[in-house]
Each structure stands twice: as C-alpha cells, then as structure tokens.
C-alpha cells in the first residue's frame, strides 16, 4: 500500500497563505477520530503521489508518525489555478463498511475497427469493508460490436458478494455506437421564432 506523509496543520494559518507557501490543505476524519484532523501536504509530493492514486484509492496516511489506513475521499481541484485546493481522507475501521468509488478503466479500445466508443461512467459507487476495497475495474471493450452496451450489472464487481454496488445496475458504462460521418443539421436559430413581433 502506498504511503503518503502529512503534517498537522495549525488552524491559525489561513489556507490561502499555506497554498502560497507550496502546501495543499486537507482533513482526516473517521469513526474513531473526534471531529477531524486538519493536515497539510507538500504540494509537489502530493501531486506526484496522485499520479498513482486517486479518489477512491486506499492508502496509508502517515500524520507525523501516526499511521492511518485511509481512503482518499475527495480531491478538490481548482481548474482555473491549475492546482489541488484541498484533499480529504477517511480513516478506516476494519469492521465498518465504507462508501467509495471504483475507477472504470477501458481496455483494448485500439482493437475496435468501427464505430464510436462512448464511455458514460468513469466511476462506480459502492460500499465494502476496508479489506474488500477495490481501486479500479477493468472493462475489456475489444470484442464489442456496434450496438453493444455494457452495463454496471455486466461487470464482475457486480457479482462480488463482499461489495454492495450503489450505482444503478442498469446504468450504461460504455456503448459502441455507429459512427455518424454525415454533417449534423444545424438546429433552427431563434431568429425565425422572433419574426412575429410586428404587431407590437
């Protein structure tokens, strides 16, 4: 399991000031933690770490020497500034089921000779005990034909008795549609609707 180091954060220092100093702020919460633990991370270290982990990943969080089996619960990105504003973790309890998301990874899309692959779900919500958490679900789309649809209930994770899927079982994960090369006709503009205004 990947380990991420964090420092406790003093709430006297504003998040904005910490960001200017090269930190990302965050919180650790959980059933056995009173309130939450405010933490901070070195920005560059965290960005490097998130190249191999993401929302829904189970990690080992080291807060100044105290180890937490934790789940990356939420990552707040600021697209305008191109940075992570905040990251939240849930400290896990081995006997308690936790809500999480699993990332959908499509495989073998290069084998599709015709049609357009449309991915409708990038993550699936579920709950499970910490020992049964899943990081990603791989979907082989190499044998799909035009008109084929893969739904949540078609995935192996749906059959796993240790996991309770929270996403609609009939929700489409990925579909292979016919390619439409013809130009799509432009919808009629509002101008035609605005013409009968001469009576005013």
Automatic annotation (TrEMBL):
One of its GO terms (cellular component) is cytosolic large ribosomal subunit. Pfam families: Ribosomal_L25p, Ribosomal_TL5_C. Keywords: Ribonucleoprotein, Ribosomal protein, RNA-binding, rRNA-binding. SUPFAM superfamilies: Ribosomal protein L25-like. GO terms for molecular function: 5S rRNA binding; structural constituent of ribosome. The keyword Ribonucleoprotein applies. The keyword tRNA-binding does not apply. Residues 4-89 form the Large ribosomal subunit protein bL25 L25 domain. It comes from the Bacteria. GO terms for biological process: translation. Residues 97-178 form the Large ribosomal subunit protein bL25 beta domain. This is one of the proteins that binds to the 5S RNA in the ribosome where it forms part of the central protuberance. Part of the 50S ribosomal subunit; part of the 5S rRNA/L5/L18/L25 subcomplex. Contacts the 5S rRNA. Binds to the 5S rRNA independently of L5 and L18. Belongs to the bacterial ribosomal protein bL25 family. CTC subfamily. This is Large ribosomal subunit protein bL25.
């Amino acid at each position: 399991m990947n380990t991420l180091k964090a420092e406790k954060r003093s709430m006297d220092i504003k998040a904005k000031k910490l960001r200017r100093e090269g930190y990302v702020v965050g919180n650790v919460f959980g059933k056995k933690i009173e309130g939450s633990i405010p933490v901070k991370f070195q920005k560059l270290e965290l960005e490097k770490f998130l190249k191999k982990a993401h929302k829904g990943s189970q990690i080992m969080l080291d807060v100044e020497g105290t180890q937490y089996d934790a789940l990356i619960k939420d990552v707040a990105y600021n697209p305008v500034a191109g940075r992570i504003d905040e990251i939240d973790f849930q400290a896990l309890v081995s006997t308690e089921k936790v809500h999480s998301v699993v990332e959908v990874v499509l495989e073998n899309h290069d084998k599709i000779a015709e049609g357009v692959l449309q991915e409708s779900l990038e993550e699936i919500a579920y709950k499970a005990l910490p020992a049964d958490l899943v990081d990603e679900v791989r979907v082989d789309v190499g044998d799909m034909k035009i008109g084929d649809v893969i739904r949540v209930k078609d995935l192996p994770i749906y059959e796993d008795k240790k996991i309770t899927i929270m996403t609609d079982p009939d929700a489409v994960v990925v579909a292979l549609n016919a390619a439409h090369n013809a130009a799509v006709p432009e919808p009629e503009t509002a101008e035609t609707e605005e013409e009968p205004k001469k009576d005013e």
